[in-house]
Automatic annotation (TrEMBL):
This is pyruvate dehydrogenase (acetyl-transferring). The lineage of its organism: Eukaryota, Viridiplantae, Chlorophyta, core chlorophytes, Trebouxiophyceae. It comes from Chlorella sorokiniana (Freshwater green alga). Residues 72-294, 295-377 form the Dehydrogenase E1 component domain. Its cofactor is thiamine diphosphate. The keyword Oxidoreductase applies. Signal peptide: none annotated.
């Protein structure tokens, strides 16, 4: 008889999830010592596919750790504030929060620079800020105000900052990945040594266009880092229920891949520094099995504290105990706080002062966003057609002016 009783079925599914390598409760790495204001630590091991792993021994100065703490805490407070504003109906529509996953973008930016390109999914608030944008631009955009990143016309899923090569959040699942390959082609063509980062989630990892992008990037040796932010749950569905092979770093097949502890900013920084060096290497890198070069797949083992979006309570397909355990054992902010305080690099009061400054910044951004204007009606007709193309598209002249324009 194939059917199982309710309790037995749940036990069977739970065992299968554990076997499939779901949300890990692995703790932090080990501190090796402090010399002056430089801390040396051992991060959790990297899992690799067709490539040797980078060193797990990493170092960071007190100044770097303090900056990581400020960045992580700033992103967390911004997202928590967005949650409260949404519940107060000051934010409408779609809203996908990033709290819990902050170490990925902070570690990425610690390793790369603004000459490198980034394109991501609709969970994009933190990416905009770490690409040099402001909290005000994010909050105002969420509220549909003119001071927003996209002048109040894009909303939660469409942040954008061209001046630092952030090519926005994409509302269509997985659509950003082929665009990321195109950005990598531009970097290759210009020959300036830049790399393109195409970020997607475990829910998008099964999209066909992901594999098409892998194939093209590998054929053309594009300097692209494909990043799967594996927070272990899609829209209400655990990774093991949607993916036969949840080892996303191996999905490139012919491309190298690496799995990283995405809750540890130092591990993430190490992974991205290694991936960029690989992706923009001059000439092929000879590995044991074959010769490979350029694109690489990174899987960030991370976790989202909120639901998939604000319409998802996030607790119907996972237990509250699981969320609580991840917070206690793997929280990226508390990890950096522990590194600083336990190793005598900062006093708890110093970190509290940073938190106070950040809270004041967020509160100020919220008040300024609330006071900002909504876009005028005529803005509905801008940024649609380029003026005077001299052509007709679907019966509409490109230089046609609507009465509101």
């Amino acid at each position: 008889m194939l059917a199982l009783a309710g309790g037995a079925l749940r036990a069977s599914l739970g065992a299968r999830a554990l076997a499939a390598g779901g949300a890990s409760l692995r703790g932090y790495g080990t501190t090796l010592g402090v010399e002056g204001d430089v801390l040396t630590a051992e991060v959790n091991p990297f899992k690799t596919h067709r490539i040797d792993p980078p060193s797990t021994t990493v170092s960071a100065t007190k100044a770097e750790l303090l900056q990581y703490f400020r960045d992580l805490y700033r992103l967390r407070r911004m997202e928590i504030s967005a949650d409260m504003l949404y519940k107060a109906k000051a934010i409408r529509g779609f809203c996908h929060l990033y709290d819990g996953q902050e170490a990925v973008i902070v570690g990425l930016e610690a390793a790369l620079n603004h000459k490198d390109s980034i394109i991501t999914s609709y969970r994009d608030h933190a990416t905009h800020v770490m690409r040099g944008g402001t909290v005000l631009e994010v909050i105002a955009e969420l509220m549909g105000r003119t001071k927003g990143a996209s002048k109040g016309k894009g909303g939660s899923m469409h942040m954008y900052r061209r001046q630092t090569n952030f090519f926005g959040g994409q509302g269509i699942v997985g659509a950003q990945v082929p665009l990321g390959a195109g950005l990598a082609l531009a970097h290759q063509y210009k020959g300036e040594g830049g790399v393109a980062v195409a970020m997607y989630g475990d829910g998008a990892a099964n999209q066909g266009q992901i594999f098409e992008s892998f194939n093209m990037a590998a054929l053309w040796d594009l300097p692209c880092i494909f990043v799967c932010e594996n927070n272990h749950y899609g829209m209400g569905t655990a990774e093991w229920r949607a993916a036969k092979s949840p080892a996303f770093y191996t999905r490139g097949d012919y491309m190298p891949g690496m799995n990283c502890d995405g809750m540890d900013v130092l591990a993430v920084r190490q992974a991205f520094a290694y991936a960029k060096e690989y992706a923009v290497a001059n000439g092929p890198i000879v590995l044991e099995m074959d010769t490979y070069r350029c694109p690489i797949v990174l899987e960030m083992d991370t976790y989202r504290y909120h639901g998939h979006s604000m319409s998802d309570p996030g607790s119907t397909y996972r237990t509250r105990d699981e969320i609580s355990s991840i917070r206690q054992q793997r929280d990226p902010i508390e990890h950096v706080r522990k590194l600083l305080v336990d190793n005598g690099l900062a006093e708890a009061s110093e970190l509290k002062a940073i938190e106070k400054e950040v809270k004041a910044e967020i509160d100020g951004a919220i008040e300024e966003a609330k006071a900002a204007a909504h876009p005028e009606a005529k803005e509905l007709w801008t940024n649609i057609y380029q003026d005077d193309l001299g052509m007709t598209l679907r019966g509409i002249e490109s230089n046609h002016k609507h009465k509101y324009a």
